[in-house]
What we know:
The protein is of the alpha+beta class. The protein is built from 7 helices and 8 strands. It has one domain: Gcn5-related N-acetyltransferase (GNAT) (Aminopeptidase). Strands 2-3-4-5-6-1-7-8 form an 8-stranded mixed beta sheet, sandwiched between helices. The N and C termini lie far apart (45 Å). The site of coenzyme A has 19 residues, from β5, α6 and α7.
Amino acid sequence: MRLLRQVADYVRVRGLTCLVKAAVHRFVFQYQRLLVLELWLDRFVGPSRRMCRSLSRIHIRRATGADVDQVMDLLRRNGYWRRRREFEDALGQESSFFIATHGACLIAYALVSRAIPSTCGFSKPLRLGPGCAYGVYAFVAPRYRGLAVYPALMVEVVRELSERGYKRILLVCDPRNRAALSSHRRVGMTVVQELRIVRVAGLSTARLRLAVGEAAGGTRD
Ligand SMILES: CC(C)(COP(=O)(O)OP(=O)(O)OC[C@H]1O[C@@H](n2cnc3c(N)ncnc32)[C@H](O)[C@@H]1OP(=O)(O)O)[C@@H](O)C(=O)NCCC(=O)NCCS
């Protein structure tokens, strides 16, 4: 029943064509190349003083269960869809989940988890290791983009993770997502590896490779 409701919600937000494409990707054939980025928390770069001025009316705080509806709404209004359960689970676990508001309006969120969700299909090759968290799922409402809302959310995420003893974050990003790559790099992340995922008839393989020419910074293990 819950699954049916999720499918109906997905179709309402993304449309039937997207559902068919997603099903083909999931069960027939998918080739995906993702970049793996790393952030050492002690190398985090927060927003500049100039950027902080543009953020003066934006309030950042830890998310609570009461915010999940607004987070889902923010995504829906902008044609994105995620399972509600991901956010509810994040609140129950040791995740760092922060939101940004402007007045009464929720305008952005960032979420870093303790582990790679098993549904991702690359939790085997991509090992987090001790002191490493996984994320970042982030979304900023289109009219607030380019104002460093994401770096401002990351200030809180990094502070909380450091207090909990974490040393770094690993995340994956589609190489075509220029805005996200630029923003991740601005806060001090570096591309360290590349992940290639092939899914055929429900079976998937995921391989890690060194991202040639982009692995500036290296690892410190
Ligand atoms: C990625 C994202 C979270 C960045 O948030 P942000 O608060 O805008 O981050 P920044 O202010 O640091 O801006 C980062 C980049 O956004 C782009 N940008 C700037 N102004 C923009 C605008 N008005 N509209 C769209 N993108 C803009 C630029 O490429 C900028 O980098 P640059 O200044 O080096 O050119 C946001 O673009 C977003 O929500 N994207 C959709 C969801 C997504 O891709 N999430 C990340 C998955 S890994």
